[in-house]
């Protein structure tokens, strides 16, 4: 991979501060994105990685293609290439411009999103990472061209200033994740079309998500990492250890609890998610003539 350092312009930094997101176009070359894409397809072909990746054979998916192509969680913890992608110097340079300080890497993920896959309901990343002070930041590397047809990203500009919400249950026929937040009054989601090699950077409080992949033959693969500022004092322990861009593992304090939901409300929300999931599974088990 190239060691060329890219730095965002003052206009891009101003856009990020105003809207909560910015796109670095062509940050990775076509050759690089093809290499990363092929690497993760090889991981998929190799099969499960206990605790991080559990793809099912197609005949066991009950028609849910995402059971065959689930997201890969934290590949940097067991795959050297993923660690190198997460700690790429170009990402570090852009992130330092946006955070205004040194940066620590917290998480990596790979989303396959094949044709027919559900989307991900509107959400805010810092609801899960629980970073304090401040928030986290995502770097979303498009490995395929991503648009509305194949389930590209939607962003709610300016929503990073409204605070992190307590979500409500999502529609599981459209979203593979179980929670969703409302769009603040006066705002609306806008599509963020990307070309392979583009990187979308967005604030951890920005409302974002995607809709189903309605294309016939197009994947929408993406390598997604989350980062925090060096001044971070605490966050959810599920993301430890953090890593410096030199690869040094470090930790901070644990931020437990229910966040904006409160512990009791969070429990009610989780029970609602469970009930909706069980209802959908029961419907799948009904004979076709009874539906």
Note the topology:
Layout: H1 10-19, E1 21-24, H2 30-46, H3 65-68, E2 72-73, H4 80-86, H5 89-99, E3 103-111, E4 120-123, H6 126-129, E5 137-142, E6 153-155, E7 168-169, E8 179-180, E9 190-192, E10 199-203, E11 208-210, E12 222-229, E13 234-235, E14 242-243, E15 249-250, E16 253-254, H7 263-285
Please characterize this protein's 3D structure.
The chain has 291 residues and is of the alpha+beta class. The protein folds into 2 domains: 247 residues, Jelly Rolls, CATH 2.60.120.620; 34 residues. The chain has 7 helices and 16 strands. The strands form 5 sheets. Strands 1-10-5-12-3-2 form a 6-stranded antiparallel β-sheet. It has a 4-stranded antiparallel β-sheet with strand order 4-11-6-9, with no helix packed on it. The radius of gyration is 19 Å and the shape is globular. The termini are far apart. The mean pLDDT is 92.
Describe the structure using short key phrases.
single chain, about 290 residues, alpha+beta, 2 domains, six-stranded antiparallel β-sheet, about 20% strand
How helix-rich are the residues, as a percent range?
Answer: 25-40%
CATH fold group of the largest domain: Jelly Rolls
What strand order characterises the main sheet? Answer: 1-10-5-12-3-2
- Count of alpha and pi helical runs: 7
Radius of gyration: 19 Å
Give the name of the CATH architecture of the largest domain.
Sandwich
Number of strands: 16
Structural class: alpha+beta
What is the CATH superfamily of the largest domain?
Answer: q2cbj1_9rhob like domain
What is the CATH C level class of the largest domain, in words? Mainly Beta
> What percent strand?
15-25%
Enumerate the spans where pLDDT stays under 50 for 5 or more consecutive residues: none
Separation, N- and C-terminal Cα atoms: 52 Å
Write the element-wise H/E pattern from the N-terminal end onward. HEHHEHHEEHEEEEEEEEEEEEH
């Amino acid at each position: 991979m190239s060691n060329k350092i890219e730095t965002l312009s003052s206009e891009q930094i101003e856009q990020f501060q105003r809207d909560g997101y910015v796109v670095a176009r062509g940050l990775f070359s076509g050759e690089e994105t093809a290499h990363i894409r092929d690497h993760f397809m090889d991981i998929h072909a190799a099969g499960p990685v206990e605790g991080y990746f559990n793809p099912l054979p197609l005949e066991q998916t009950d028609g849910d293609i995402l059971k065959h192509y689930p997201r890969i969680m934290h590949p940097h913890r067991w795959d050297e290439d993923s660690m190198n992608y997460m700690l790429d110097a170009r990402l570090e340079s852009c992130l330092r411009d946006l955070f205004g300080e040194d940066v620590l890497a917290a998480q990596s993920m790979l989303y396959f999103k094949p044709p027919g896959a559900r989307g991900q309901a509107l959400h805010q990343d810092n609801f899960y990472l629980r970073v304090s002070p401040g928030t986290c930041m995502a770097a979303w590397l498009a490995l395929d061209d991503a648009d509305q047809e194949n389930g590209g990203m939607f962003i709610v500009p300016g929503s990073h200033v409204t605070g992190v919400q307590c979500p409500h249950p999502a529609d599981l026929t459209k979203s593979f994740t179980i929670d969703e937040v409302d769009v603040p009054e006066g705002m609306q989601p806008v599509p963020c079309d990307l070309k392979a090699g583009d990187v979308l950077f967005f604030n951890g409080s920005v409302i974002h998500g995607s809709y189903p992949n309605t294309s016939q033959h197009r994947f929408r693969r993406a390598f997604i990492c989350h980062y925090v500022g060096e001044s971070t004092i605490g966050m959810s322990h599920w993301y430890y250890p953090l890593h410096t861009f030199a690869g040094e593992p470090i930790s901070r304090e644990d931020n437990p609890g229910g966040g904006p939901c409160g512990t009791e409300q969070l429990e009610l929300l989780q029970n609602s998610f469970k009930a909706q999931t069980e209802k959908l599974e029961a419907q799948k088990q009904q004979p076709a003539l009874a539906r």
